[in-house]
Amino acid sequence: MRGIKILGAGMYMPETVASNDWFSTILDTSDEWIYTRTGIRERRISEDKPNWYMAAEASRAAVADSGIAPEDIDLVLAATCSPDYFYPALSCLVQQQVGAVNAAAFDINSACTGFINALDTASRFLQDGDYRNILIVASERLAPHCDYTDRTASILFGDGAGAAVVTRSDKPMWSYLSAKGDFFNALYCKVDQSRSNCPLLKPDALPEGIIDTEAKTHTLQMNGKAVYKFAVDAMETAVNKVLERSGLTTGDIDLFIPHQANARIIESAVKGLNLPAEKVYVNLEKHGNTSSACIPTCLAELKAESRIKEGMKICLVGFGAGLTSGAIVFEQ
Ligand code: UT7
Predict the structure, then answer these.
(1) What local confidence, expressed as pLDDT, does residue 203 receive?
(2) For residue 228, how far is its CA from the centre of ligand 1 (angstroms)?
(3) Geometric angle at alpha carbon 80, from 78 and 85, rounded to 5°
(4) Would the pTM count as exceeding 0.85?
C-alpha cells in the first residue's frame, strides 16, 4: 500500500502585507474589483527575505511539529518555480538550514502543482524501505517575477512557504497527475539571457506565443481567461479521476484542499463536483495565490488548529503553469 502520514506541518509568511487598497495606489484597480473577481483581500510580499529563507523557516516549523530529529530526514523535496539560484537546488539550501545532514535533496518545478507532484514523488520514495521520513517544502517568492504595471496578474500573487514532514503509512493513497504542454504559453516567465557576455549569443529563438521584449522578459506573463477555463475543468477532472482510482465518492472525503488561485475558480469546481462547501478549505483571502505554497500552508493552518485527524480522508487538488494539474487522496 502506497500510504503517507503527515507527521508535522509548518509555514512562513513575510511580514509585509500588500492589501487591495495598496494596489489601488499603484494601479488602476480597487478593493471592490479584486475581491469580487478573486476573493483576495491581501497577500504578503517578501521585501528582503529570499525564497530559501522562507523555505527554511517553514521547514524548521514542520520538523519541530513532527517531533523527529533533523538527522532522521532521509530526503528533502522542494517545490518552487521562483528559486533564488538556478543551482544549487533550493532543497540543498533547506537541507543545510534545517540540519538534515543525512538527507538527499532535489527540487521539483511544476509551478502551482508543485506540492501535489512532490507529495506523489515522496509517497513513491517511501515505498522503498531506504526512505522513512521526507521533508517536503513548497516556497515561492513571486514578487520579483510579477509585473506591477499588469493589473490582471500582479494582484493575484503573494509570497510564502509551507512544509510538511511525511512518513510511510499502511493506509491508502491514490493520485492522478497530468500535464498539457500545448498550453505552455498561457502562463510563463522567461529567463533573461541578455545579460550573457558570450559574443556568440544572438536573441533566443522563441516558441509560438512567447513574447520576449525587454519589458516582458523575466516577468510573469499570463492569459488569465485561458488559465481560468483550464483550471475549473482540470480541478474537476483531477478529482473525478483520483476518486475513480480510489473507488471512493465525494461523500467519503472529509476535507478538500484546492489550490488557492481564485475563489471563483474554487466555487465553480466545487459546484461542478457537487462538494459540500463546509468540507472545502480556503485561505486565499489573506494570502492570495502563493503558487506551490498554497496547499501546504492550508495544511499547516489546519494542523495548527488540530483539524487534521487520524483516519481522515483528505483530497488535495491543484493546477498551474505547464499547464499542469493533479489530485491526491490519502487517509491520514
Ligand atoms: O495559479 C494559477 C494562476 N493564474 C490564475 O489562476 C488566473 C486565472 N484567471 C483569473 O483568475 C481571472 O481571469 C482574472 C482574475 C485574472 C481576471 O478576471 P476576469 O473576470 O477574467 O477579468 P477579465 O480579464 O475578463 O477583465 C475584465 C475587465 C477588463 O476591462 P475591459 O477590457 O472589460 O474594460 C480588464 O482590463 O477587468 C479589467 N481588469 C481590471 N480592472 C480593475 C483586469 N484586472 C483588473 C484589476 N482591476 N485588477
Answers:
(1) 87
(2) 10
(3) 90
(4) yes
